[in-house]
Amino acid sequence: MSRPVADWRSLLFVPGNQPRLIEGAHKRGADALILDLEDAVPVPHKPAARAGLVEAVRLLEQQGLDVVVRVNADSPSLLEDLQACRAAAVSTVMLPKVAAPEQLAAFEAHLASVTDASGPVFDPALIALIESPAGVFSANAIAALPRVTALALGSEDLALAMGVAPSAASLTLPCQWLALAAAAHGKRGYGLPASLADFSDQAALLGAARTARATGLHGALCIHPAQVVMVNQAFAPSAADMDWARQVVEAWAEAREGVARLGETMIDRPVIERARLLLQRGNRP
Questions:
Q1: Whole-number average pLDDT of the chain
Q2: Comparing C-alpha atoms, which of 4, 5, 10 is closest to residue 232?
Q3: Does residue 123 contact residue 155 with C-beta atoms inside 8 Å?
Q4: pLDDT-based confidence at 118, cuts 50/70/90?
Q5: Are 69 and 60 spatial neighbours (Cβ–Cβ below 8 Å)?
């Protein structure tokens, strides 16, 4: 099963039971919207959120947005969520609290029961949300599963499980593990070595996002629109990056050999490929 990998930097959570927030979500600048059926929706309101999913997804996609739906992990709710996702033709689902690859067997069973019903096949891509130390240690096995297109780090829950505050000290290494696991299987990785709950300190958020990018992650989850601008900026190549990349490409073209030189730096195949990737990312809308 080969699945396209979306080039997202920022993924903004929007409560699935808040039509007003959903209607204005296209103005926030996020690369993707995560319609949340889990933590952001109180239990009594979950049926209404499911019932409104078809219209919410239709509206957001008409506005040119990519849509992910975060479902509930517990079995009864998961089945109902997947039924709603199927009705809305959701292309990507986020499953929370993934701690081991075996958990995905239950997800597949629910998916099969939904897919066996009448109508078109429902075959969504999956973002595995890792929120525990066990999940971090299982990241490689989780990323190897064919349905999984990305790993994401739940900073707050992971820090809680470790009994510490969400900070660079506690979360940078998990970010690196996720980045390595994702890269090993050609998948995407999303996360921040910081608390998502504190969106007031923009400079700190920008620094955390730049650290996440340096570990090899591709983007970050956002819970407030104020975070989107900083995340998009951090995960986009800087002007200096773009200038370096252009010089590398020019030097490589002039050399016409397997190795080129830019100042005191030698350019070989990995360097030129990194430069081309930077130019590609920097030229995105």
A1: 89
A2: 10
A3: no
A4: low
A5: no
Cα 62 to Cα 74: distance, rounded to the nearest angstrom:
31
With contact defined as beta carbons under 8 Å apart, do 35 and 14 qualify? yes
User: Coil, helix or strand for 28?
Assistant: coil
Q: Would you mind telling me the total number of residues written for the chain in this entry?
A: 285
Strands (E), 178-264: 188-190, 220-222, 260-262
Identity at 245, one-letter amino acid code: A
Burial degree of 243 (CB within 10 A; 0-12, 13-18, 19+): exposed
> What pTM, to 2 d.p., does this model score?
0.88
Report which secondary-structure segment, H or E, holds 125.
strand 125-130
CATH of domain 10-236: 3.20.20.60
Least confident stretch, 8-17, 104-113, 173-182, 237-246: 237-246
pLDDT for residue 2? 45
Q: Is 11 helix (H, G, I), strand (E, B) or coil?
A: strand
Could you state, in order of their start, the residue ranges of all structural domains in the chain? Answer: 10-236, 240-282
Q: Where are the alpha helices (DSSP H) in 16-52?
A: 19-23, 46-51
**For the residues of 47-111, what is the DSSP string, one character each?**
HHHHHTHHHHHHHHHHTT-EEEEEPPSSHHHHHHHHHHHHHTT-SEEEE----STTHHHHHHHHH
First to last CA, the chain: 29
